[in-house]
Amino acid sequence: MTEPFHCDIMRCDNLVRRLLPAMRAEMVYRLVNERGISQSEVSKRLGVSRAAISQYMSRKRGCNRGEFPEKLEMIIEQWVSAIASGEGRITICDICRSTDPSDRR
Q1: Disulfide engineering: 52 pairs with which of 17, 48, 76, 91, CB 3.0-4.6 Å?
Q2: Distance CA 88, CA 59 (A)
Q3: How far is CA 44 from CA 3, 14, 101, in A?
């Protein structure tokens, strides 16, 4: 049986510190390399500096490209699509719900 989702600020805090930078780096990589959006345009769409995008691309921010669980891969791809199209959004809660419950602690 699946554990019901319960919002917990400590889980969110851990998620934001541990997973979000790597997910953001992966999203930026995909927007630039797979979707062909310029780094300058990605910076505008995300509301971050061009230098931040450059650091994500060179892996000075976030972490090295790695494997994400399938559910997080789907969230990253939805995030990429939302940014590329300008439609839709992804929230921290969406990401948290997609993580393994034992991973949220």
Answers
A1: 48
A2: 27
A3: 39, 27, 34
Which two structure tokens, joined as six digits, stand for 59?
């892996």
Alpha helices per DSSP H over the chain? 9-18, 20-33, 39-46, 50-57, 70-85, 92-97
Q: What is this structure's pTM?
A: 0.80
Q: What is the pLDDT of residues 55-92, one digit of tens each?
A: 999 888 887 566 788 888 999 999 999 999 988 888 88
CA–CA distances in Å: residue 27 to residues 1, 7, 20, 70, 100: 32, 24, 10, 15, 20
Instruction: Report the SS3 class of residue 70.
Output: helix
| pLDDT at residue 104, rounded to an integer | 41
